[in-house]
Design a protein that fits this description.
Immunoglobulin-like, mainly alpha, 2 domains, single chain, elongated, two-stranded antiparallel ribbon, Cytochrome Bc1 Complex, Chain D, domain 2
Length: 233
């Protein structure tokens, strides 16, 4: 059993050691904040996007950096997961992309406001969060996968690279929400592919594939590209 003086010394010594460790860890954490928080890339567009996020109470449905509601998807890595072009199309008219199913409000944001929101999401996505949330299914431009993506998507129209790959994979590169497009020309003819891209629910009611706002030229280019994707028998 410790004497009073020994107990006092133990208490004081322990307090000093723990306090020193706490101060040291605090200083180290504060020193890492500028780099890990990505504050050097906080542009005016990012700040405006943050204001739009707050003013419209987006956290009432979504979470970002783990904070918010859990009714709608987590958006910390939404740009790397979906891509800026997909987000832009979706925000303009959520219901048009998911007829009868998507519950997100159509806010009628201007193109400039949508660009600011995307800038905010892009900035958030580059914050070092120690691996939160888990890595997305689709990562464009990372290491060897960038070369793999370039080879698989060679000759693809821009709309394929910005919209289709958010959900579909080709030669192992892309998303896994929808079926892979390898050999798609063996499964569908040109007319059916065109109908799918024009209005998916009319071809298969209840399909998860959204109705994309593609122009006739974009749809034609996509069909032509997809018709070249035949598997070897």
């Amino acid at each position: 059993m410790l004497s009073k003086s020994a107990a006092r010394a133990f208490f004081i010594g322990g307090t000093v050691i723990v306090s020193a460790a706490f101060i040291g860890l605090t200083v180290d954490t504060l020193g890492q904040v500028p780099e890990r928080s990505n504050e050097s890339e906080m542009t005016d567009a990012v700040k405006r996007g943050h204001e739009i996020w707050n003013d419209n109470n987006c956290m009432g449905c979504h979470t970002i950096l783990g904070e918010g509601a859990y009714y709608a998807p987590e958006l910390t890595k939404v740009v790397s997961r979906r891509g800026a072009e997909w987000i832009k199309v979706f925000i303009k008219d959520p219901e048009a992309m998911y007829p009868g199913r998507r519950k997100m409000v159509k806010y009628d944001f201007t193109d400039a406001q949508i660009d600011d929101l995307i800038a905010y999401f892009s900035w958030i996505g580059k914050i070092d969060t120690n691996g939160f949330p888990p890595e997305p299914d689709l990562k464009i431009g990372a290491g060897s996968s960038a070369q793999k993506s370039a080879n698989a998507h060679a000759g693809a129209p821009p709309s394929f690279k910005t919209l289709c790959v958010a959900c579909h994979a080709l030669e192992g590169s892309g998303g896994n929400v929808g079926p892979a497009l390898d050999g798609v020309a063996n499964r569908y003819d040109q007319k059916t592919l065109d109908a799918w891209l024009k209005d998916p629910p009319s071809v298969k009611p209840g399909t998860k594939m959204p109705k994309l706002p593609l122009t006739d030229a974009q749809r034609s280019a996509l069909v032509s590209f997809l018709m070249t994707k035949k598997s070897q028998k």
